[in-house]
C-alpha cells in the first residue's frame, strides 16, 4: 500500500475529504492518538482496491477505503490473479467448488478477500471456497487430482503455483491477445493511415510525459512512432516542423485521407499529415485556442470543432468550422458549449471535454454525450444548435465511449459523472437518429456492461459487434488502480454484453488507445504519460477477435479477389474512388463456409485519443444482386448509401464476411 503524503486534520472526516481531493488517493490512515497541532495524524494512501487484501490497522489507527466490490466477478475484472500484500498469489475461479473432503476448516468471513487472508495463515491451506449468501469460508487442501465442479453460489481462489489445469473457453469464444510490442513512446493518440498497413501513434513533447506549452516557443514539437502491422517493425519520428505539441488535440481525417490535428498543448495550432507526401504541414490556426476538444468531419467535407477548456484562453470554446480546401477557419458563435456541458466537479475546465460528435445529413452534427443532454449543431452562417433531449435516464458519462455501429445506430457505454475521482458506469444506451437532421431521436437502455468502465476504448468490428477494452472501475487518472483487464463484446442483435475470458497482458487505462486494423484485428496501446511513475506503458498489443477462429485454430478467410466499378460509380482519376449512391461488384474466392450468404461492411478509418474516436463508423452494405457461384467464386453487386451524412467522405475499409469470418480489407475512398 503506497503512501502519498502525511497531514494534520482534526477528524477522520477531514482526513477523508482531503483524500477525495488528492489524485491517486484511495485510502486514509487516521490516528486518534496524535491530535496535537503539529502532529501528522492523517496519512493518505494509494492502494489497488479489491486486488489487495487490506491490512489490519495498528492500535489507535482507523483505516478508511473508497468503496469497491470484493466479489469474485469484480476481482476477476482486474485480472485472474490476486496478490495478497506481501503474501501469496492466488488465482480466481468464479462459480466453482470442490468436494467437502478437501475442507480443512470452515469459518465465516465478510468477503472472499478475508477468506483468502485466513488461508494465508494456514500452512496446509492452498485454496478457499467462499459462499457469498451466508459468508461461508471453506479453507481447503487441493492437488491436481482434486475434483472441481460448477457451482452457482460458490467462488474459489487457489494458490497460483497449483496450476490446476482449469479449462478456458476456445478462442472462437474469447479471442486472443498477441505479444506485447515495445514502443519508444507512449501511444496516447493513434490513427490508422489510410490505404496502408501502418498505425501512427504519438505522445507529447516527451515520450512519457507532457507539458502545457500553449503557443510559446518552448516544447512545440511532438514524439511519434509508426508500426507496420505486417512486419511488426516500429520506428520513431520527431515532428517539429509545424511547431505544435500535439498532446490532447482534436483529430479528424479530411475527405482525402489527410489527418487534421487541432490544438491541444499548443492550443491554437493545426497540423496536417499528408500520406501522399509522407510529411506534416502547418495549417491555419484556430481562432479559439483549445485542448481536449472534439472534432468531426461533416457531410460537406469540412471539420467542426467544439469545446476544449483544458487549454487556451479562459473563454467559451465556441464551435469553429474548417475548410480543408481553402485552409480557412470560421467561428460559430451560435454553437456554444453550455448546452452540452457536464456537471463536472471541476467546472468547465472538464465539463466541455471529449464531446461525442457524429456527422449526419445536411452538414448537421449530432452530439450524443458525454453529458446527459443531447444536441444538434449546425454550421451554416454563424452556427446554431437545437436540443435533442436527454440520453434516457443516463448520468453524465465523461470519458465513456460512443460508437456508430450501424447507420444511425449509436451505442454509448461507461464513463463517470466527473472526469476524475468518480465511479465508472455499467450503463449503456442505444440512440437511433431520425431520418433527417434535427428530427427526434430515440433512446433506449441496453443491457448493462459486465463491469463498470471509465477511460476504456470501444471499437466497432465489421460484424457489427463492439469490442470494449480496458478502463478502470473508478476514474483515478495516471494510475492503473482498479484496471479492468478483461474485455467484453456488445452483440447488436441481443443488445447485450458478454465477457471475453482473454485477459489483457497490460492494463490500458487513462491515455490508452484502440483502433480497428485492415486485417480485422484491434490495435491497443498506451496508458500513463506521468513522467517518473510506474504506470507508463510504452507498448501495444494486437487483439484477435473471436470471429478469426474456429475452435482454437485460425478460420479460413474469404478473399476479395476483384472490385469492379459500375458505370458512373468511380472517378476517372482513381479506380478506388467512389461517389455516394452508386454501385460496384465484388468477386469473392474461396467459398469456405457459405456459397451465397456473404455479408459486407464499410468501416471508416479511425483516429483516437482520450477514449474518443469520432472518425470510426460501420456501414453495412446489403447486396442488391448476386450471381450464382461457380468455380469457388461468387460475385455480388453492392450499392453505397446515397447521402454523405450516412457515409461521410473519406477512406474506408471494405470487409466481406463468410459466416462472420472477415476477409482482409480492401481500401475504398468515398469522394464528394
Automatic annotation (TrEMBL):
<dbReference type="Pfam" id="PF01344">
    <property type="entry name" value="Kelch_1"/>
</dbReference>
<dbReference type="Pfam" id="PF09118">
    <property type="entry name" value="GO-like_E_set"/>
</dbReference>
<protein>
    <recommendedName>
        <fullName>Apple domain-containing protein</fullName>
    </recommendedName>
</protein>
<dbReference type="InterPro" id="IPR011043">
    <property type="entry name" value="Gal_Oxase/kelch_b-propeller"/>
</dbReference>
<dbReference type="InterPro" id="IPR003609">
    <property type="entry name" value="Pan_app"/>
</dbReference>
<dbReference type="InterPro" id="IPR037293">
    <property type="entry name" value="Gal_Oxidase_central_sf"/>
</dbReference>
<dbReference type="InterPro" id="IPR014756">
    <property type="entry name" value="Ig_E-set"/>
</dbReference>
<dbReference type="InterPro" id="IPR013783">
    <property type="entry name" value="Ig-like_fold"/>
</dbReference>
<dbReference type="InterPro" id="IPR015202">
    <property type="entry name" value="GO-like_E_set"/>
</dbReference>
<dbReference type="Pfam" id="PF00024">
    <property type="entry name" value="PAN_1"/>
</dbReference>
<feature type="domain" description="Apple">
    <location>
        <begin position="94"/>
        <end position="163"/>
    </location>
</feature>
<dbReference type="InterPro" id="IPR006652">
    <property type="entry name" value="Kelch_1"/>
</dbReference>
<dbReference type="Pfam" id="PF14295">
    <property type="entry name" value="PAN_4"/>
</dbReference>
Amino acid at each position: 500500500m503506497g503512501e502519498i503524503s502525511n497531514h494534520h486534520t482534526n477528524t477522520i472526516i477531514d482526513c477523508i475529504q482531503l483524500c477525495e481531493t488528492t489524485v491517486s488517493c484511495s485510502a486514509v490512515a487516521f490516528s486518534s492518538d496524535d491530535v496535537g497541532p503539529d502532529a501528522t495524524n492523517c496519512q493518505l494512501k494509494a492502494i489497488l482496491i479489491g486486488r489487495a487484501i487490506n491490512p489490519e490497522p495498528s492500535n489507535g489507527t482507523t483505516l478508511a477505503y473508497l468503496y469497491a466490490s470484493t466479489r469474485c466477478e469484480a476481482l476477476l475484472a482486474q485480472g485472474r490473479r490476486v496478490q495478497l500484500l506481501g503474501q501469496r498469489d492466488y488465482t480466481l475461479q468464479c462459480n466453482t467448488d470442490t468436494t467437502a473432503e478437501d475442507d480443512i476448516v470452515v469459518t465465516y468471513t465478510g468477503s472472499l478477500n478475508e477468506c483468502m487472508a485466513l488461508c494465508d495463515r494456514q500452512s496446509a491451506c492452498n485454496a478457499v471456497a467462499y459462499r457469498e449468501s451466508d459468508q461461508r469460508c471453506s479453507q481447503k487442501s487441493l492437488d491436481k487430482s482434486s475434483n472441481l465442479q460448477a457451482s452457482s453460489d460458490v467462488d474459489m481462489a487457489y494458490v497460483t503455483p497449483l496450476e490446476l489445469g482449469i479449462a478456458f473457453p476456445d478462442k472462437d469464444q474469447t479471442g486472443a491477445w498477441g505479444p506485447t510490442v515495445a514502443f519508444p513512446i507512449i501511444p496516447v493518440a493513434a490513427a490508422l493511415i489510410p490505404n496502408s498497413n501502418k498505425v501512427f501513434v504519438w505522445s507529447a513533447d516527451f515520450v512519457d510525459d507532457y507539458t502545457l506549452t500553449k503557443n510559446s516557443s518552448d516544447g512545440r514539437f511532438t514524439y511519434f512512432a509508426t508500426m507496420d502491422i505486417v512486419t511488426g517493425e516500429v520506428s520513431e519520428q520527431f515532428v517539429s516542423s509545424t511547431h505544435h505539441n500535439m498532446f490532447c488535440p482534436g483529430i479528424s481525417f479530411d475527405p482525402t485521407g489527410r489527418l487534421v490535428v487541432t490544438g491541444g498543448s499548443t492550443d491554437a495550432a493545426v497540423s496536417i499529415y499528408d500520406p501522399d507526401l509522407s510529411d506534416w504541414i502547418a495549417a491555419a490556426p484556430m481562432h479559439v485556442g483549445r485542448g481536449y476538444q472534439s472534432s468531426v468531419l461533416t457531410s460537406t467535407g469540412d471539420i467542426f470543432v467544439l469545446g476544449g477548456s483544458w487549454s487556451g484562453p479562459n473563454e467559451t470554446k465556441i464551435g469553429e468550422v474548417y475548410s480543408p480546401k481553402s485552409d480557412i477557419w470560421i467561428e460559430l458563435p451560435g454553437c456554444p458549449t453550455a448546452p452540452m456541458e457536464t456537471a463536472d466537479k471541476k467546472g468547465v475546465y472538464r465539463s466541455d471535454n471529449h464531446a461525442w460528435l457524429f456527422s449526419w445529413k445536411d452538414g448537421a452534427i449530432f452530439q450524443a454525450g458525454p453529458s446527459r443532454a443531447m444536441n444538434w449543431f449546425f454550421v451554416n452562417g454563424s452556427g446554431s444548435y437545437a436540443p435533442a433531449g436527454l440520453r434516457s435516464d443516463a448520468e453524465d458519462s465523461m470519458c465513456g465511449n460512443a460508437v456508430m455501429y450501424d447507420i444511425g445506430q449509436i451505442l454509448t457505454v461507461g464513463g463517470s459523472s466527473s472526469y476524475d475521482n468518480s465511479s465508472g458506469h455499467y450503463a449503456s444506451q442505444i440512440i437511433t437518429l431520425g431520418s433527417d437532421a434535427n428530427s427526434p431521436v430515440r433512446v433506449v437502455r441496453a443491457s448493462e456492461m459486465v463491469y463498470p468502465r471509465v477511460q476504456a476504448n470501444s471499437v466497432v468490428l465489421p460484424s457489427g459487434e463492439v469490442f470494449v477494452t480496458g478502463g478502470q472501475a473508478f476514474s483515478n487518472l495516471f494510475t492503473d488502480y482498479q484496471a479492468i483487464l478483461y474485455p467484453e463484446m456488445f452483440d447488436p442483435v441481443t443488445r447485450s454484453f458478454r465477457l471475453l475470458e482473454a485477459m489483457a497482458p497490460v492494463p490500458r487505462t487513462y491515455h490508452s488507445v484502440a483502433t480497428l486494423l485492415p486485417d480485422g484485428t484491434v490495435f491497443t496501446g498506451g496508458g500513463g504519460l506521468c513522467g517518473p511513475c510506474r504506470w507508463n506503458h510504452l507498448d501495444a498489443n494486437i487483439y484477435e477477435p473471436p470471429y478469426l477462429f474456429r475452435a482454437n485454430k485460425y478460420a479460413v478467410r474469404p478473399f476479395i479477389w476483384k472490385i469492379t466499378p459500375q458505370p458512373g460509380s468511380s472517378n476517372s482519376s482513381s479506380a478506388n474512388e467512389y461517389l455516394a449512391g452508386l454501385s460496384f461488384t465484388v468477386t469473392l474466392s474461396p467459398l469456405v463456409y457459405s456459397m451465397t450468404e456473404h455479408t459486407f461492411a464499410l468501416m471508416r478509418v479511425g483516429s483516437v485519443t482520450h477514449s474518443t474516436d469520432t472518425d470510426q463508423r460501420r456501414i453495412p452494405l446489403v447486396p442488391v444482386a448476386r450471381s450464382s457461384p461457380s468455380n469457388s467464386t461468387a460475385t455480388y453487386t453492392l450499392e453505397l448509401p446515397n447521402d454523405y451524412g450516412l457515409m461521410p467522405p473519406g477512406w474506408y475499409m471494405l470487409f466481406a464476411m463468410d459466416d462472420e469470418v472477415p476477409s482482409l480489407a480492401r481500401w475504398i475512398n468515398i469522394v464528394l
